[in-house]
Amino acid sequence: MTTGIRLIVGLGNPGPEYDATRHNAGFWLADQVARDLSAQFSIEKSFFSSVAKARVQGDAVIIAKPMTFMNRSGQATGALMRFYKLVPEQVLVLHDELDLLPGDAKLKQGGGHAGHNGLRDIQSQLGSAAFWRLRIGIGHPRTLGLNQQVVGFVLNPPRREDTLKIESALDRCRAVVPALIEGRFEQAISQLHSGNGS
């Protein structure tokens, strides 16, 4: 049973002081997807999340922003997946990616966590790496020529020119969400990846 995506989890840190930071790129995309699906977020304590519920062609689609910190993202993801009786293959995680340049985005299923604390916790809580990941490039301080530690880098806002590139990547990500909900994964991958490095 592999239908399309039913649970979309944007990763970030809660609180206004983190809103504009690179590590919250997953939250930025989750907000845009919820708007596209005319869904409103509200805090659901039992899911440790801010949750928005939409219906797409009769199917429920849940968008969540965990209100735990990044390294506990699996708590919310696991609770939602179990409650809605989903399998990892129906879960899409939106997250910032140091290994991709600002403006790039990649979609993949499975794989390691590459040191991303949010992914590491989700993998551990779900007991599986088979969930989908939408990786939003934020660049790495080294590749961007910045003399900054990674921790400081992800917890700061991007430079203006990088912000514009990230916004353009988010637009391309939003455009493939309908295909993901319908289970047209190959089409979504080819559409998204064709816009990289442009």
Automatic annotation (TrEMBL):
| Major location (coarse) | cytoplasm
Q: Where is this site: Stabilizes the basic form of H active site to accept a proton?
A: 96
Active site as annotated: 23
- Localisation per UniProt entry: Cytoplasm
Q: Report the top EC class in one word.
A: hydrolase
Q: Which GO terms describe its molecular function?
A: hydrolase activity
Ordered alphabetically, the record's keywords are:
Cytoplasm, Hydrolase, RNA-binding, tRNA-binding
Which residues take part in binding tRNA? 18, 69, 71, 117
Question: Which reaction equation describes what this protein catalyses?
Answer: an N-acyl-L-alpha-aminoacyl-tRNA + H2O = an N-acyl-L-amino acid + a tRNA + H(+)
Which EC numbers does the record give? 3.1.1.29
Please name one Pfam family that this protein belongs to.
Answer: Pept_tRNA_hydro
Which residue numbers mark the site Discriminates between blocked and unblocked aminoacyl-tRNA?
A: 13
Q: Which InterPro entries match?
A: Pept_tRNA_hydro, Pept_tRNA_hydro_CS, Pept_tRNA_hydro_sf
* UniProt family annotation: Belongs to the PTH family.
Please name the NCBIfam families in this protein's record.
pth
Q: What does this chain do?
A: Hydrolyzes ribosome-free peptidyl-tRNAs (with 1 or more amino acids incorporated), which drop off the ribosome during protein synthesis, or as a result of ribosome stalling.
The record's subunit annotation is: Monomer.
What is the protein's given name?
Peptidyl-tRNA hydrolase
Q: Which organism is it from?
A: Neopusillimonas maritima
Organism taxonomic ancestry: Bacteria, Pseudomonadati, Pseudomonadota, Betaproteobacteria, Burkholderiales
